[in-house]
Amino acid sequence: MHLAVIVLAAGKGTRMKSELPKVLHRACGRSLLGWVLDGAEPLDADESVVVVGHGADDVITTLPGGVVGVVQEPQLGTGDAARVGLGACDGTADTVLILLGDMPLLRAETLQSVVDTHLRERAAATMLTTIFDEPNDFGRVVRSEGAIAGIVELSDANAEQRAIEEVNVSVYAFDAAALSDALGRLGSDNLQGEYYLTDVIGILSADGRRIVGVAADSAECVGVNSHGDLARVAETLRFRINDELMADGVAIIDPKRTYIDAGVQVGSGARLYPDVYLEGDTVVASGAEVGPSVHARNTTIASGASVRFSVLDGASIGPDAAVGPFSHLRPGADLRDRSKAGAFVEIKKSEIGEGSKVPHLSYVGDTTIGEHSNLGAGTITANHDGFSKHRTTIGDGVKIGSNTVLVAPVSVGDDAYTGAGSVVTHDVAPGALAVERSLQEEIPGYAERRKHRASQDGE
């Protein structure tokens, strides 16, 4: 068998009320089209074509290697789109699987069943059907003596046809030659003036060709036409992701409040608390604890690390390190083994060495901190002079006093100290104490004189 997959993705998605092409709207970190292509990937098709229209250039740039994008212009219906897609194939396919780009819930097993049934039954066409509680505007499957005779679109259906429960979900496997011939005979004599792919079924049936149906779970056959649909689809995908992770040994305390993108890696034995959002290329190792209330994007969290009530973007958290509560780790924040970023700490483009701690109320930017150093509360590395950014280097075993400002570029040597409240503008030698502040001055009797002056002023 030589299999070609054609995905119809030319629609604008008017009900989305967005300039973004409908198929590029994302659910659980992946576009709708991405989910469809992902579902078809296990079929190992010999060629894959995506038919695009609205936002064609934007859609084509997202296609993975080996998938061809072809533009349907003008857009004259699904039959015309299939014709455009088939024309982009190399002509060697004997079986063509046609999918829609806005149906992300179809599982690979379901698609495989369509192809397998098609080949086993030696059908001219095999179509996926289902029964919805509310079929709405899906085309009705018309049967004659049990055999599929055609599909009628809702806008063209009479009252008897509208009452049919079995509907077409626009997933088909075709004999390539039969499809090509039928597409060439399509007409546009309907209310929309378009070429319907569904009419191919009627043409093949009238030719006496075999049409086979494969029943599908209606939960897989949901398309996306609005943001409400998108949210419901995302919920289903999210539960699939969470269920798979829990089956692999991840402890998810409340799956309804845990949001994990496709592609995120979570190791067996990790523990995720409620209100955790893991996005992008995030990796959580076995034995890590994340949450509650953590948003991590493109971040690595190593085994034994703990992250609570924090936002992490492009950070690296080492083994047994602790983050939070209320930390903000920005790109380039690199916490080494057993280090700590505590309450109300912001770190950006900085390395926090093994066993070093930034416990609370601090900003650390463009900084290298050695091992087993401690930054007191309120420490700031002032990395920007108004024109350029500069680095701060803090050695091993350093004790930075509370409310210290380190004005970069500056270096603090191993085992050095800074006095609380200092503004350090020069390098500090190893083992030294740097105190850079004015002497305290005391004015005796000030309170009494202040009261006297206020009474004379009528305050």
Overall, the morphology is elongated
CATH architecture of the largest domain: Alpha-Beta Complex
Largest sheet: 12 strands, parallel
- Percent helix range: 10-25%
Q: Find the CATH topology of the largest domain.
A: Spore Coat Polysaccharide Biosynthesis Protein SpsA, Chain A
Strand percentage lies at 25-35%
Report the count of strand segments: 39
CATH superfamily of the largest domain: Spore Coat Polysaccharide Biosynthesis Protein SpsA, Chain A
**Unreliable stretches covering 5 or more consecutive residues:** none
Please describe what this structure looks like:
The chain folds into 2 domains: 3-220, Spore Coat Polysaccharide Biosynthesis Protein SpsA, Chain A; 240-434, Hexapeptide repeat proteins (UDP N-Acetylglucosamine Acyltransferase, domain 1, 3 Solenoid). 20% of the residues lie in helices and 31% in strands. The chain contains 9 helices and 39 strands. Strand 2 and strand 3 form a beta hairpin.
Brief summary of the model shown:
20% of the residues lie in helices and 31% in strands.
Secondary-structure topology with pairs:
Blueprint: E1 3-9, E2 26-27, E3 30-31, H1 32-40, E4 47-52, H2 56-61, E5 67-71, H3 78-87, E6 95-100, H4 108-121, E7 125-131, E8 140-144, E9 147-152, H5 159-162, E10 166-175, H6 176-183, H7 198-206, E11 211-215, H8 227-247, E12 251-252, E13 258-260, E14 265-266, E15 271-272, E16 276-279, E17 283-284, E18 289-290, E19 294-297, E20 300-301, E21 306-307, E22 310-313, E23 316-317, E24 322-323, E25 328-329, E26 334-335, E27 340-348, E28 351-352, E29 357-365, E30 367-369, E31 374-375, E32 380-382, E33 392-394, E34 399-400, E35 405-407, E36 410-412, E37 417-418, E38 423-424, E39 433-434, H9 446-456
Parallel strand pairs: 1-4, 1-6, 4-5, 7-11, 12-15, 13-16, 14-17, 15-18, 16-19, 17-20, 18-21, 19-22, 20-23, 21-24, 22-25, 23-26, 24-27, 25-27, 26-28, 27-29, 28-30, 30-33, 31-34, 32-35, 33-36, 34-37, 35-38, 37-39
Antiparallel strand pairs: 2-3, 6-10, 7-10, 8-9
